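As noted in the main text, all predictions were made from sequence alone. Below is one such record, for Alpha/beta hydrolase.
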Amino acid sequence: MADKPAIVLVHGFWGGAAHWAGVILELQRRGYTDIHAVENPLTSLQNDAARTQQMVKQIDGPVLLVGHSYGGEVITEAGDLPNVVGLVYVAAFAPDAGESAGQISQEHPPAAFSNIAPDSDGYLWIAQDKFKESFAQDLSDEDAFAMAVTQKAPVGSTFGDTVSAPAWKVKPVWYQVSTQDRMIDPDNERRMAARMNPRKTIELDASHASLASQPAAIVDLIDTAVADLAAE
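Prediction:
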């Protein structure tokens, strides 16, 4: 692959496309010119995968999908399009066929599981006063508070939506583990990464919000993926 692929960034629960701000700016600094960030509705895996595929289909050329958290499940479901050349997982879920994010979490509950609660409309929220310690303990108080207030709550049933045909079985994969993750157990991340047989796995001393606290390291992994693909 002579030219850099388009980068499509896919956010997860409790955040939107703006969670990728640091990564986006770092990609731009490194010469990436075709950068996109999906804004998923977080209403169902089917809806989120469809929204992601809509964006990918608008791009004329190769696409590298990058998913954070539940965004990893989205790219797993949405990533088997002809122009998707690889999948990068950032502290992310990577379910197998028939698995859901909720099932994986229940098998190995993360440290902050008890800080998530539904509202009367069925949306799941992280308690504002617990957001930093749960999701972003390595960010400043100010940045974590802004994330807490602007968190995008998913419909609770989305946690139970299952993957049909995992794209990681047919696409190259790279994975980042957050060793201080309190939203997905780090050992769960290692387990999901290992079974995908990734081209490379990195571990960062980071919270679940590694995309915000260590954007340069995330872009290093994206660079590695792009270089690996270019060498094929």
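The radius of gyration is 16 Å. The beta strands are 6-10, 35-38, 63-68, 84-90, 116-118, 124-126, 173-178, 200-204. These features were considered when defining construct boundaries for the mutagenesis experiments described in Section 2.9.
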